[in-house]
Amino acid sequence: MISVGARxxxxxxxxxRRPKPIEVQFRTIxxxxxxxxxxxxxxxxxVLVTVVVGFTLIFVFPLYWMITGAMKTGxxxxxxPPSLFPAHPTLDAFVEAxxxxxxxxxxxxxxxxxxxxxxxxxxxxxxxxxxLSKLRPLFGNVVLGAMLATLMIPPMVVLIPTYVTIVDxxxxxxxxxxxxxxxxxxxxxxxxxxxxxxxxRELVEAAQIDGAGALRVLWSVVLPVSRPILGVVSxxxxxxxxxxxxLPLLVMSESDKMTISVxxxxxxxxxxxxxxxxxxxxxxxxxxxxxxxxxxxxMAGLTAGxxxx
Length: 309
Prior knowledge:
This protein is mainly alpha-helical. The protein contains 16 helices and no strands.
């Protein structure tokens, strides 16, 4: 019989023999001790505030210069050195730009092209991503790799072949000339496929056991749980339609069919500089509104599907 005291001594020996947990330490430029000191905290916050304020000014200043330039008179806008603040702010340039550029028509055209391109793009990109993710066709990885390889090619390289194709199909001054190139987007397909890969296979198999076909599974199972990534792809497609310039310039040559970016550039030489600034501010409003309304969905959708679980 082993006494209680002997068992206690044996237990202590076993505890002493157990290896201590290894503490993982990350090597950084500044040690935690230095960072928690008084001067360390001051230097840290000084550097952080300087970097944040500096980058904010770099990105926001062009927008500020455009808005304040539209509020200045033509003489004040042309004076040297330029002033940071308008001496007598006025909104006349916005009214003048709206009438001279016919911005109402240009915005309607752009919205029409954006909505049509969004519908066509969602149909093509969602179908392609679903096929690559869940249907697993033959040579699917090769097709996906070829799509991703197109992202490494500068857009200007494929611009001429795209334009020649549009001309051969007789799609000049036709909305389909903008919708066809916007439909097949390798980046959107990659985002959608990554999210579809994170959907549990059991959901798809349960629907198939109940007799659902491929289209039924896509409509009833995959799309309802894919709203975050669908929202992100939709935002990217619409914003790209508003800011695209080169392809609409080549395809839509008639004045009553131009987009907002092309229409402003075509008549910019015949109006004052502050009117041009006013037109640019008005043209920027739709995309700025879209960003502020859906910025949370943009950040959430970019990381959606990156972690399974």
